[in-house]
Structure formats: C-alpha cells, structure tokens
Amino acid sequence: MSDVSSRDKKQSWFYTDIVKDHFFNPRNFMHEEVDETQYNAIGKVGSPACGDELRVWMRVDPQTERILDFRWKTFGCGSAIASTSMASVMVTENRGMTLEEARKVKPQDIMARLGGLPERKFHCSVLCDKALRDAINDFYRRSDQFDKIVVEASRIIDPVSKVTDHDIEEAVLEGAHTIELVQQRTKVGIGNPGCLPAVEELIRFYKEKYFG
C-alpha cells in the first residue's frame, strides 16, 4: 500500500496496489473522440464532494441486455479513476453482466475488488455506481422500456433550508458523521429544529449503509 498525505499534512490516505494499478493503467478508458452512435446507453454524474465529473458509454445487447462494452471518462481524483476502471471490468467480465445484475453492484463491491479506499474517498466509488445506474436508465429510456426506469427521488427533510435526504447522504459520504457536522455543511435544522430527529435517523442509516 502507498501512503499519500493531505495538503495540510494532518491525515494520510492509504492506497492498495490494485488502486494504484487501475489509476496508472485504467481499463476501458475512452482515449479517443467519442462516437456516441456506437453506444446505446450513456450516463453522466457529477460530485460536489471533490468536483469530479464522470461520463460513461455502454453498448448493451438489446436481446440479452448484457453489457458488451463500457467506456468512460472522468475529470477527477485518482480514487474516482481507479473505481470507474474497476467497475468497467466488473460489468464486462465473463460475457458481461445483465443490466439487472449491474444494477445490484454496490459501492462496497467496487471497493472490495480494489482492496479498499480511504474513508474520505469513499464517495468516488458512489460516483461510479450512480453513473452506471444513470446509463442503465438511459438504455431503458432509449428502448421505450419506461417501466424499468428507476428514478432516485429526493425528499425535503427541512422545508426551511430546503435540505433533502440526498444532501444529507452527500454530507455523510464526505465525512460528516455527526449532527453538528451535517449542520455545518447543510444548515439543516438551524431554523427548524423539529426536523433534527429525522436528520439523526438519516445519518445513522447512511453511516450503516456505506461504512457498516
């Protein structure tokens, strides 16, 4: 494993050899100019956590709904590159996953194949997971299978600050694991303390979901 320190030198992040390999030798990266007519599923997602933007292009067999090809580009950190590279391998190996199988891929699965990521960088594997699901929805949209589209809706937790459950999820992924830290990032409950029990419940839920 390699040790990388943050700019302020107050914390170190450890990267496995697998992460380093996928960072320096990314699989299925889209090097050339993209010809989108060659793909029938496109996904895009951005993360406010570190400014990453990720685009994926998939070629899916219309009959079997297996992923035959998965290409990607990201303008993000090393963890985002390694996570997406590994995900591209996972969904195309062994003749390719079906879309139903790919939808079940979780950030924890990507991290396990990488041998782990620093907690601060966990959101990078979530970024890849979301881009994959966005591309799957795009395939179903293009093929008029609207009943198979899964919409990830957000609900407002604090009507005063307009903070949603998605905002709280992002805060937890970025390291805010207490109500005080979540409030610092989102201002949830500052003018509406009655919503704080629901916020605390969501913090517990997302901590358990992503960090065990």
Whole-number tally of structural domains: 2
The largest β sheet comes out as: 3 strands, antiparallel
Radius of gyration using CA atoms only: 18 Å
Contiguous runs where pLDDT drops below 50 for at least 5 residues = 1-12
The span between the termini is 23 Å
- Molecular shape: globular
Question: Helix proportion of residues, in percent?
Answer: 40-55%
Which CATH class of the largest domain applies here? Alpha Beta
- Tell me the fraction of residues in β-strands, as a range: 15-25%
Strand order of the largest sheet: 3-4-5
Structural summary, described in words:
With 212 residues, the chain is of the alpha+beta class. It folds into two domains: 12-145, Sufe protein. Chain: A (Alpha-Beta Complex); 156-211, Arc Repressor Mutant, subunit A. Helix content is 42%, strand content 17%. It has helices spanning 17-24, 78-92, 99-103, 107-114, 122-142, 165-173, 179-186, 196-211; strands at 2-5, 12-15, 41-46, 53-60, 67-74, 156-158, 163-164. Strands 3-4-5 form a three-stranded antiparallel sheet. A hairpin with a 6-residue loop joins strand 3 and strand 4 (53-60). Helix 2 packs across helix 4 and helix 4 (107-114) packs across helix 5 (122-142). The longest helix is centred in the middle third of the chain and has 21 residues, at 122-142. The two termini are 23 Å apart.
